[in-house]
Design brief:
This protein is of the alpha/beta class. The chain is 26% helix and 13% strand. Helix 5 packs parallel to helix 7. It starts with 23 loop residues before the first strand and ends with a strand.
């Protein structure tokens, strides 16, 4: 293999208004990244201390999952105060020092905003509980009278995203809506005070140097419940065409138009990316220049490792990006899903070819069966994951990477029940074991009580096999997954060009090849048989290349 560079060139923060269009963004789940004070929980000083590592990857930005004060009813997505730092994670001064260190290394900062709901410990919700029916305090949330005698029954039979009832009684005949856990009461975005407070929050963090925002549940803010609530069956059957009472309403974009005016007050303008689980043909509105500017595309994350599926998804989403004037996003792993090295290692369908895609592509059945590593083809899963990531990094648009995937980490599927933290596990016993397996603290060293995560252990148990995938174990190995990511991200920064591609004929259904406008070519073999590469300088490959042929399950980059 011939490498153009040995180490990645650093990104620059500058004033480039379009930096986000083809950025490589690294997601940090702060409580599981690095623990500087030894209390078992990752913190902001831990991020600051690891800035040299982040710079060595060659990323343009980091996205931090919530670091706000929280009881952790939902891993930090239950926010007590949107304009402060959880004391367990540090202080606002620690946040400022982290931003300064990251900017000094040429890395921009994106933070998570959780606008659909607060925590039940937020000062507004405490005030609402202490206030009477019809009060201004309750109008900030979605309260409804119960049914039956004295309002003893829920206003409707709705089910929350995490399972169980979506309404909780407050003891005076009224109930509040929580689309997620009961500790996450939904806000009323028809209330002007709610809208103004979030504009204040966006300016608060922008003034502290934040470059952009990831918007949690971006499709859920606007609601129109009416006087008579539908049943759950009626609600579930309603069309998702912009008129649904709860999700993806057309009027949510009025909120984001106001946000855009705030973003544009800054130079460079602040960016945003929507987490919007909506029909693909409705995603473009969230990514418009008048709104958030970009939206997550989870299509590859949900796809089988299959050439035809990948090509269809890529073509469709590049078309959507052109329609919206935005750039598309690509992602394979994040804090909510089974790591893609594990999804790609799951057993094939019964009766299919040896390496056929699994019907359990999201890993839920594997987790429910105990999540044993013995049930995985780890080598195949990692080869597929590396091939998919190199393909992702060659595509036009932004690539979002999740902490630990650069180490080839597998999902920790066999966490003891007593150690689990995710509310999905507690609210759906026997149905959903939750998302803790991808949130296990990172291994930095080969050994130690927490593999270098911190001196005080880790808040989720780490398996013994973590040491072999630690940063220490991979750092000096030129063939490691870590160094493949470093080389790929460095090359990506050098090779990036106009936001389109040209498909190349390969003569095989299991091989995808495309060329970017500057002669950068990516070839991915999804099957087991080697493929003769086109002519050009070999820049990087995730699998062996012999006599000009890329072995099965691999991606190669070439330059003509």
């Amino acid at each position: 293999m011939t490498d153009v560079i040995e180490t990645p060139a650093p990104a620059t923060t500058g004033t480039d208004e379009t930096w986000w269009r083809q950025a490589s963004v690294y997601q940090i789940y702060p409580r599981s990244f690095a623990d500087a004070n030894g209390d078992g929980i990752g913190d902001l000083r831990g991020v600051t201390e690891r800035v040299p590592y982040l710079a060595s990857l060659g990323i343009e930005a980091v996205w931090l999952s919530p670091f706000y004060p929280s009881a952790l009813a939902d891993g930090g997505y239950d926010v007590d105060d949107y304009r402060d730092v959880d004391p367990k994670l540090g202080t606002l001064e620690d946040f400022d020092a982290m931003v300064e260190a990251l900017h000094g290394a040429g890395i921009r900062v994106i933070v998570d905003i959780v606008p659909n709901h607060t925590s039940d410990r937020h000062e507004w919700f405490r005030e609402a509980l202490a206030s009477p029916k019809g009060s201004a305090a309750r109008d900030r949330y979605v309260f409804r009278d119960g049914t039956g005698p004295d309002g003893a029954d829920a206003p409707a039979d709705w089910i929350s995203i995490f399972g169980g009832p979506a309404w909780t009684a407050v003891g005076d005949g009224q109930w509040y809506l929580h689309s997620f856990a009961k500790e996450q009461p939904d806000l009323n975005w028809s209330n002007r005070e709610v809208r103004d407070d979030f504009l204040h929050t966006l300016r608060f963090w922008s003034d502290r140097g934040v470059d952009g925002f990831r918007i949690d549940v971006a499709h859920g803010l606007a609601k129109d419940l009416g006087d008579v609530l539908p049943t759950w069956a009626e609600l579930s059957a309603m069309p998702k065409d912009g008129t649904h009472p709860l999700w993806d309403r057309d009027d949510v974009h009025e909120i984001y138009a106001e946000w855009r005016k705030v973003f544009d007050e800054y130079t460079p303008a602040r960016t945003a990316v929507a987490e919007a689980w909506v029909a693909a043909d409705r995603r473009a509105r969230y990514a418009s220049a008048e709104g958030l500017g970009q939206a997550f595309n989870f299509d590859l994350l949900e796809a089988d490792f299959d050439a035809g599926s990948f090509r269809s998804i890529i073509e469709f989403n590049l078309g959507l990006a052109e329609q919206s004037g935005s750039s598309t996003t690509w992602v394979f792993s994040n804090h909510d899903v089974v790591r893609h090295a594990t999804r790609y290692a799951l057993p094939p369908r019964s009766g299919d070819a040896e390496h056929a895609p699994s019907t359990d592509k999201q890993g839920s059945a594997w987790l429910l069966a105990g999540g044993s590593q013995d049930a995985l083809d780890r080598d195949l899963g990692l080869r597929r994951a590396k091939a998919a990531t190199l393909l992702e990094l060659a595509l036009p648009g932004s690539a979002y990477l999740y902490q630990g995937e650069e180490l080839g980490l597998q999902e920790v599927g066999d966490i003891p029940d007593a150690d689990r933290q995710d509310p999905a596990f507690f609210r759906n016993p026997g149905v959903d074991v939750g998302r803790d397996g991808c949130r296990v603290p990172l291994p930095w060293t080969r050994s130690g009580s927490s593999f270098g995560f911190g001196d005080g252990g880790s808040h989720l148990p780490q398996p013994e096999w973590f040491g072999e995938s630690s940063v220490e174990a991979e750092d000096s190995d030129p063939e490691s997954t870590l160094n493949l990511y470093r080389k790929a991200l460095g090359l990506r920064g050098q090779l990036q060009s106009e936001e389109h591609l040209e498909w190349l004929e390969t003569g095989r259904d299991d091989v995808l090849a495309f060329r970017r406008p500057n002669g950068w070519t990516s070839v991915t073999v999804f099957g087991d048989e080697p493929y003769q590469l086109p002519s050009g300088e070999l820049l990087l490959a995730s699998a062996p290349v012999a006599a000009g042929a890329l072995s099965g399950v691999g991606t190669a980059w070439l330059r003509s």
